[in-house]
Amino acid sequence: MRQAWAGFSTFPVSPFKSILAGIVAVAMTLCAATGASAAKSAAIVVDANTGKTLFSENADAPRYPASLTKMMTLYLVFEALNSGKLSMSSRVPFSAQAAAEAPTKLGVKAGNSVTVETAIYSLVTRSANDSATALAELIGGSRQNFARMMTAKARRLGMSGTTFQNAHGLPDAAQKTTARDMSVLGIALREHFPQYYKVFSVRSFTYGKTRIANHNRLLGRVAGVDGIKTGYTRASGFNLVSSVSDGDRRIVAVVMGGQSGRSRDARMAELIKKYLPKASTRGGGPLIARGGDSPIAALASAILPKRKAPTPEARPDVIVALSEEEVQEAESQQMAAQETVIEETTAPIVQAYAAVEPAPQPKAAPRPQAEVTVDPISTSSTAPEGWAVQVASSPSEAEAQGFLAKTTKQAPKAVASASPFTVPYVKDGTTYYRARFGGFGSKTAAWDACAALKKKKISCYAVQQ
């Protein structure tokens, strides 16, 4: 064979052969690139109470997120809801670009709109690409700026291996993440926004006359699973992030690069069965997911364009891939829906057009409840960044402020350079207020201040904002 090829290669190279060689080279490159992202599976299991890694396999290797992207879209949406920039009844207009997104999608016509609530449920259940783009345009002003906001938020959460280029997760060679980063985002969604997190456990919702089922097939089938998200493209393989609770134990597990939806789900169920019993029962104390800016994000906000958004590199044309619904429908005729994804934002909200026609509303979509068991970190822009010292927590905001005033009077030197503030959170249906002093530049500074307060018989602990 080698001799034959050697003999063949001695003939003059024709233009056709040159073209053929070029095609082969490109094909090999594309195969290699795809293989680098999806050839090996990646997985991680993290104890959501302590942040300890219970299992890891290629957890820091770059992977394509596919529709897991929409987890960050939702984070930004929840942040806008939490800050009051949006409400569940706010209108989300669909531009021509949003309406033209590839399936799966909700199918809203250009110029029409839906509520934020409907858009959220369409992302969680159907993984609607048109809704993702419409939300991106509403919150970020443009799809490109929203992607920058997503990447900036990823850096603030400590997701150092993640770069976003779009809000829906359709293929983009520059859109990368890791299994570890997805576990961080999964924990952050529940810890920072428990009042909205329950949307991930919704089995289905009704849009117009259509019942749309959640694609996450582990809901209701594996004990303790309460969300979060599936994802698939040819390059990424089958992805899944799951949050699981069993009494006081709680984990977040990630599986990426599965060969099929069934094998991915089976792998996830196996990891849950093995590692959930090994998770800690310790609860309370500082939250695991970071809420403040990392040094990388601080640097990015100083040297890059405004809105704290790293500028992504030029991206190639988007290639439309089969949805997970289409792939699994070929495997099994029982598929009812596809994966979802959502994005979040901190930029000013662009007002919805007043003249758009309202689209059908969901009839039986359960609203997110305020009743939760984990309190969230405040994402208020008024809270000082960095490290803080908490001195009290009270169901009365006035009482919390009173603790701050009393502490300032009792130990003025310890908090002389700090800023007092309160942070609301919800627990068991009741709103409480944390009394904190913020603005400490380092963990050591916050610990030293707390040590000084304890000498004055003032209970406290240091926490990163």
TrEMBL record:
Residues 1-32 form the signal peptide. InterPro entries: Beta-lactam/transpept-like, Peptidase_S11, Peptidase_S11_N, SPOR-like_dom, SPOR-like_sf. SUPFAM superfamilies: beta-lactamase/transpeptidase-like, Sporulation related repeat. Transmembrane segments: none annotated. Substrate binds at residue 229. It comes from the Bacteria. GO terms for molecular function: peptidoglycan binding; serine-type D-Ala-D-Ala carboxypeptidase activity. One of its GO terms (biological process) is cell wall organization. The active site is at residues 67, 70, 127. Pfam families: Peptidase_S11, SPOR. Keywords: Carboxypeptidase, Cell shape, Cell wall biogenesis/degradation, Hydrolase, Peptidoglycan synthesis, Protease, Signal. Residues 381-465 form the SPOR domain. Belongs to the peptidase S11 family. This is D-alanyl-D-alanine carboxypeptidase. It comes from Neomesorhizobium albiziae.
